[in-house]
Amino acid sequence: MIYPENSVDKLGFTEVKQLIKAHCLSMMGQQMVDRIQVMNNYDQIRKFLSQASEFKNILLNDDALPINHFYDIKTLANKIRVEGAFLSEEEFFQTQTSLATVFAVISYFDQREGIYPNLEALFEHLPIEKSILRKIDQVIDQKGKIRPNASRDLMEITSAIAKAEQEARKKIEMIFKSASSNGWTADGTLTIRDGRLCIPLLAENKRKLKGFIHDESASGQTVFIEPEEVFTLNNRVRDLEFERRREIVKILTALTDELRPYVPLLLSYHSLLTKLDFVRAKALFAIDIEGEMPQVVNEGRVRLINARHPLLLLSFKKEQRTIVPLNVQIDDATRIVVVSGPNAGGKSVCMKTVGLLQMMAQAGLLIPADEHSTVGVFKQIFADIGDDQSIESDLSTYSAHLSKMKYFVEQANGKTLILIDEFGTGTDPQFGGPIAEAVLESLNQKKVRGMVTTHYSNLKIFASNTEGLENASMLFDNVQMKPLYVLEVGKPGSSYAFEIAQKIGLPPNVLNLAKNKIGASQKKVDTLLVDLEREKKEIFDTKTKLDKQQRKVNELLSENEKLKSYLEENKRNLIREAKQEAQSIIQNANKLVENTIAGIKSSQADKEATRKLRENLNQELKKHEVRPVVAKPAAQSEDDELKPGDWVKLVDSDTTGQVMEIAKDNVIIAIGDLRTVAKRKRVQKVSRKEVPKEIRRSFSSSTSDVASFSPEIDVRGMRGEDALGAIERMLDRAVMMSVGSLKIIHGKGDGILRKLIRDYLRKYDQVSRMEDEHADRGGDGITYVYLR
User: Which residues are known binding-site members for ATP?
Assistant: First the structure.
């Protein structure tokens, strides 16, 4: 139950229905949208939501449902019901195409049995009577015209008409040719007058040809004559055409009689088409507002995660602006949320978002909120929004509010959701505040759920001290003096009356006078709220900054771990190679010493021979002498100046890489697939020949990959999963190669592919942000993706 009835208009539910109607293909679907109501049956709500969710899945991820034609079969079936009535060719064609759509849809779901159970339930136990379609196909062709062979008599009449028309044509052409050779005709050819083929004659020659004059030109110099011989033939054609019409009526009447027993089945098919059109429209609207199916519970509670007002979302989309999401919870512990904060800070929008999304969910519509959101089932939704003063009923603004409060207090219960905007306003705050507090206390005792907005301090204090009530505030940037539209639950908010007045430009003397007029306690409370707001904003900004720094530290740690692992591997390889080389040197030295000793013995210690052998030994040992490594000075000549593409070696590790970029005193070096940054004095330029072939070859392969990589991809015409696969491969390569941005061309259309791609990319931490191309160069048909 909705009270008052105009709440559906004030919350925007009527406008939502109009937007859904725009997606309907048929008048029947639109009529069904008009009948959408807020339900309180848990099973029905789940069924309607599931149907919309399944159809949305078909539109986004499956082959297109073969829905091409929707006609009002119900009206045609009612016409068939009447004895002696018959459908026209056009009406049979509408029935034919509608039935073809019905059977194609049933076949579509038969091929996907069990995948869309809630949609399959729409035609469960519905018989498929294709004989109806066959009967119509025998009479009506694919263009909606009666077939020439629909009956033997029709074939004979059609053949006779063609023969008579051909004979009349030949006859008049022969007469026209003769008249032309005699110079009787005017300029031009045979023409049609009053549905008859005529010869254009000069007026002075009209007595030279017997026939019937059908018309004359505006100047009177030309007359249009149907020759006497042709007149009889044309009359014959006309008689045959009348006879053909009578035969067609006879055929259509017989076909209508054959379909009369199937009227109940035709009405069932009509119901299926109407429901499909209805569910399709709901699914298309859900795609427009990025709607999801929430979790539904048969209790009086709500938990909205990243919720957005659908109408505001659509408006912001047109202006290419983003909407601040809402997170709020109403349950047994927090039954009523009391929202306070500055004017134009979003309190009313916040409350209307909760009310509208609850209405939509209970009406079986997907809502623009995270799929992990929870909506309950309320038996009653009461709303007090706006000014309902009435001259006819002699009600002032405050009287109208009090009338609603009276109804709320009397009728509300634990299954009621209340929404009250600017609670207690319209009268003297000294009395309006206590009355509002008493009403709020009474509603809380009844375990009512809901949300109210207010500026009254007594309601904020009451909510802080009362179980079941919870304060919440709309955040406000009191430095830049602008609302943040973020709902923070747990503390009340200041109205920022003086700050906003100061920003608008109210004179300082007036402001000071106003401050002196308010009570000291009130001033203290408001100042405390402003200070709390400021501190909360500073904490929020600091937390955001720390989170950003923490992410940067984590990235650096990850990069250092990779580099450390790479260097450790190189170190192990170098040690292994050094050991192998040392072992080889020792073996060679041992052989050399043994040979020298053997030579000395064989020469019987001859002095000259011994001296030569010792010199040879010393020369061989000097070849393997270990020299200390001395780093070259950082200052180099102009010929040795580093530039991108040069090969360098890290002085303290002998690791070789290629220069990618030079930034002041830092050098960015590519070492295989890794990138590292080193100070200029820590690298030493080496020639290409000094670089091992395997390192040059691996870098050449990596460079070719970079050169062949394109940061642009066109996925127009692809299916959703194919497009996502191609984008994922490109994204992997882009992250590996440290590419800064990507360009994805997906086209505009209904925006389905664009939304699918953007939702998918939001899951990647490497994606920093996304934006549309300039309107002159493709607009929202192209998405730019910026990587961290």
Answer: 341-348
